[in-house]
Amino acid sequence: MTVTTDAVLLRLRAVRASSAPGGLAAPVLTEAEIVAGAITPALAVLSDNRPRVRVAEYAGDGLAFDFALPGWDPTQSAVLDVAWPAGQARAFLAPERWEVWQSTIDAYAVRFLVAADVPATGDVVRVRYTAPYAVEADVRAGDREAFITLAASYAAAMIGRDAAQQRGRNLAADGTASIELARWWAEEADRLRSEYRRMVGIEGQGAGASRSEVSNSGGGGTAVAIADWGTVAADGPYYALTRYFRGRA
């Protein structure tokens, strides 16, 4: 099993050991069930509530004006800022001088709109943007406990649903015990979701209302380095910051 799968199961067993009424069976879920029903949706929700922030740096060549955004999701991503020349005071490019556009079917890029803004050879362009988590290993250390808590809430809900439908592998022999089991795990799922909301600072809201790479982009084959940024938002998604976006004609 993966590290996260084991962590989710350990969390469920700890929950049961600390507060479950006597006679309730221990949780049993397969790795495939936890990945599909708990880890995957938890990644999607965390991407909404605490988005992953990435930084792409591009070396100008005097020709390129399109700069790729690996991992961009049109429903979740947003550009935070475009710095050019990077590292210089007051170097942030005004939003009306660039746009995000769909460069191919599954690829997106920042396009500079003003001819005078084409980065010269030696110039560095830096773009900070949000992107959803692709795999559990991408989750920041500071958000990992919240991620495991949310995944555990989904796993607890699965156990409760199995009990309610009388198909679970851990059902007691009589129907009364099965109903009790279903109700208890459903309540624990709600409690874990509330704990997750508190951990990420979104109490009162729904929990799911949601390395280096080298690539080339633009007319001149501009080099680009992509890395994760060490800062994330504490209060939700950045959708409103994406002011310019259009699909490819």
SS summary, helix count: 4
Based on helices, strands and strand pairing, what is the structural class? Answer: alpha+beta
Number of domains: 2
Overall pLDDT metric: 77
Q: Can you write the helix and strand succession as a string?
A: HHEEEEEEHHEEE
Low-confidence stretches: 167-172, 206-226, 228-249
What percent of residues adopt helix (DSSP H or I)? 25-40%
Question: What is the beta-strand fraction?
Answer: 15-25%
Give the spatial strand order of the biggest sheet.
Answer: 3-6-1-8-7
Q: What can be said about the biggest beta sheet?
A: 5 strands, antiparallel
Q: Looking at the structure, what is the overall shape?
A: elongated
Head-to-tail CA distance between termini: 45 Å
Radius of gyration: 23 Å
* Assembly form of the protein: single chain
Total beta strands: 9
Q: Could you explain how this protein is built, in words?
A:
This protein is an alpha+beta fold. The chain folds into 2 domains: 111 residues, no CATH class; 119 residues, no CATH class. Helices cover 33% and strands 20% of the residues. The protein contains 4 helices and 9 strands. The strands form 2 sheets. It has a 5-stranded antiparallel beta sheet with strand order 3-6-1-8-7, with no helix packed on it. Strand 7 and strand 8 form a beta hairpin. Helix 1 packs across helix 3. The chain starts with a helix and ends with a strand. The C terminus is likely disordered.
SSE order and pairing:
Elements: H1 3-19, H2 31-49, E1 52-59, E2 66-68, E3 79-83, E4 98-104, E5 107-112, E6 124-131, H3 144-164, H4 175-200, E7 213-217, E8 222-228, E9 245-246
Parallel strand pairs: 4-9
Antiparallel strand pairs: 1-6, 1-8, 2-5, 3-6, 4-5, 7-8
